[in-house]
Amino acid sequence: MSSIPKIVILGAGYGGILTAQRLQKELNYNEADVTLVNRHDYHYITTHLHMPAAGTDSIENTRVSISKLIDEFKIDLVKSSVQEIRLHDKKVILEDGTLSYDYLVIGLGGEPETFGIPGLAEHAMTIRSINSVRLIREHIGYQFALYKNERRPQERINFVVGGAGFSGIEFVAELADRIPRLCKEYDVDPALVNIYNVEAAPAALPGFAPELVEYAMNVLEKKGVTFKMGIAIKECLPGGVILSNGEEIRAATVVWTGGIRGNRLIEAAGFETMRGRVKVDEYLRAPGYENIYIIGDNSLIFNEEGRPYPPTAQMAMQQGVCCAQNIVAAIRDKSMRKFEFHNKGTVASLGRGEGIAVVGDKKYQGWKAAQLKKLVDLRYLFIIGGIPLVLKKGRFL
Predict the structure, then answer these.
(1) 111, 155, 170, 174: which is the annotated catalytic residue?
(2) Cα separation values, 138 from 130, 225, 350, Å
(3) How far apart (Å, rounded) are the C-alpha atoms in residues 199 and 201?
């Protein structure tokens, strides 16, 4: 007696959602049993998290109920946390049960990479989930409230952001936009507030042309951000950081955005990894496993120059579509499609009305780039939820 194949998707991030949506579109009725496992019953837009973290936008604009994105007659949503992946048994152990699979898609998302910096995991906050964003947002406001009630309060209104990549730059930009409002609300002199952006590399925003990076730093410096480039965080303390040059910055708020690694569950499963990421084959499969696909932050793909592609949202989205097509092809014994990444451009927000962007061979800065950022966000909402989701969650002003 034959049974239909079981497809299990771990994670409802960019890659997982696009995989599920494409499977429900391409599979025929009763052609496969598809289960999507996610810790929460919502999908959140990672590239938007820096705004609610800083307090410049609502958390509700960042998350979407998964039930609004999938057809629950075709996709079974299981709200649970993955505890273990047992490759030889073809089973996934959840906190409250076990799932068997014939095809497995791993898109569990990444984890903060601390590079072994002492105290960072214990004392720094990270922008990685709705809950972590809520904590940062409330923490920032609380520091201003405490500032008025303590004798040695300066560290309360000092803010250190580690990392000057996309997340770090976009977060300090939004934080700099929020500070004047907080100062007015709590009767604090804005000149007393310090925002430090610390980066071990010699330059911010890798991947952007030097002139765009210079523009971005000039914009943020005018907003009150102090950059410390080419200087690493040596240690993170309960009340600040010690830098590699010996300088100590006293701060009650340290936010780490300096790196992402793959998920430790993948290492524990027995895959060969590089910082928790698996080098997948041309069809997005794990080496040695024709039925296991790894996408998003958990996958490692090299470009023509032999350098790994950064695990971006557009990379995960394209992987999700290709992954679903290849699973359908495998079920139907058809030819699979090799994954090819098509870079549709890169945009970084610098706060309200400001940004930098590269689309093809064209470079944009200022208001035009900020509008491109909005278009990117609206496009994603349209892809996963159509016009109704664009109208409900989109930012037009």
Answers:
(1) 170
(2) 12, 21, 22
(3) 6
Q: Please provide residue 348's backbone torsions phi and psi, each rounded to the nearest 5 degrees.
A: -125, 130
Which H or E run includes 43?
A: strand 42-44
**Residues 47, 170: Cα–Cα separation, whole Å:** 9
**pLDDT confidence of residue 1:** 36
pLDDT confidence band for 217 (50 / 70 / 90): very high
Contact predicate 137/231, CB 8 Å: no
What pTM, to 2 d.p., does this model score? 0.94
pLDDT of 7-31, one tens digit each? Answer: 999 999 999 999 999 999 999 989 9
Q: Residue 348: name the closest of 219, 227, 258 by CA.
A: 219
Q: CATH for 125-256?
A: 3.50.50.60
User: Which residues, at least 6 apart from 54, have a Cβ–Cβ distance to it below 8 Å?
Assistant: 136, 137, 140, 171, 174, 175, 177, 178
Domain ranges of the chain: 6-112+260-343, 125-256, 345-396
Gap between the Cα atoms of 53 and 61, Å rounded = 12
Whole-number Å distance between alpha carbons of 341 and 327 = 18
CA-closest candidate to residue 312, choices 324, 296, 290, 330: 296
Sequence-separated (6 or more) residues with CB below 8 Å from residue 278: 262, 266, 271, 272, 286, 287, 294, 298, 299, 300
Cβ–Cβ < 8 Å for 278, 271: yes
- Domain 6-112+260-343: give its CATH code: 3.50.50.100
Q: What does the pLDDT average to over 349-357? A: 96
The yes-or-no answer on residue 60 being catalytic is no
Contacts of 232 (CB under 8 A, 6+ apart): 117, 198, 200, 243, 244
pLDDT number for residue 155 = 93
Rounded to an integer, what distance in angstroms lies between the CA atom of residue 274 and that of residue 282?
18
Could you identify the residue written with the tokens 């009763």?
A: 30
